[in-house]
Amino acid sequence: MSKGTVTLLVIAFVICISCGAGYVAYRIVREKLRRFSRAAFGTDSIAEGFEQQAKELAVTPKSVSAMTRIFLPQIQRDFPDFHMEQFKDKVENALVLALQAISATDAGIFEHQIKEGVSEEFLAQIKNRIRENETEAVTEHYEQIKIHQTEISNYEKKQGTCIITFQSAIGYLHYCEKAGKVLSGSKELLEQTRYNVQLMYIQNEKLTGMDNAVGTTCPNCGAPITNLGAAYCEYCGSAVTLVNLKVWTLHSFDETDYRHS
Fold first, then answer.
1. What is the per-residue pLDDT across 139-163, written as a single tens digit (0 to 9) for each?
2. Which fold has domain 64-255?
3. Which residues contact 195 (CB under 8 A, 6 or more apart)?
């Protein structure tokens, strides 16, 4: 047997061993992946597992920072006439209308429905989003909007104001199109996310421009206002503005899980 033949046989043997080892390694890796997929997703296919997981996430509402039990008693001590359900409905309605206005590229949809108790900052957020989309020639869609839960997540007093933050778990179809092509999101798969909506109450009359606005002191005698929702000063009897939907204003809204391009 010539040296060339021996060399070829050795090479062929090495190739066979390598292929065999490679196949064995492939089988081992494949089996490990199958075990992982079964444990994680209940299926042999990782691709099917991820697809199944995406579908489950699409219909599973996000949890919210539910601090209502802690903050509501504090708010009601400051504002005895504060009605949780009334303001919760206002917040949810405003959030849905804001998204619908962005989707329709028409801020008027919001303005025609909510004419009082909304700040210029809140309206500017809607109009700026519409303007940005128009500048980029992008159409942003929000469809099948559903709010699952809304809770108070924070209450703070600062710089002459009281601010209540509501957090809502919301689901919808959300996608952006340009020239008929979907740039982000999905037309079929729901998206679950969270939004914060802030309500602001201005304590300091100098910030509101109203002579009888509730402040840290009575606008007439200067006595401290210990009850922020009081109708009258407990010292001199002067009227002060009651807490209501015209005083608590929608200040801002933002998506806490924002991740869109």
1. 999 999 999 999 999 999 887 788 9
2. Nuclear Transport Factor 2; Chain: A, (3.10.450)
3. 95, 167, 168, 170, 253, 254, 255, 256
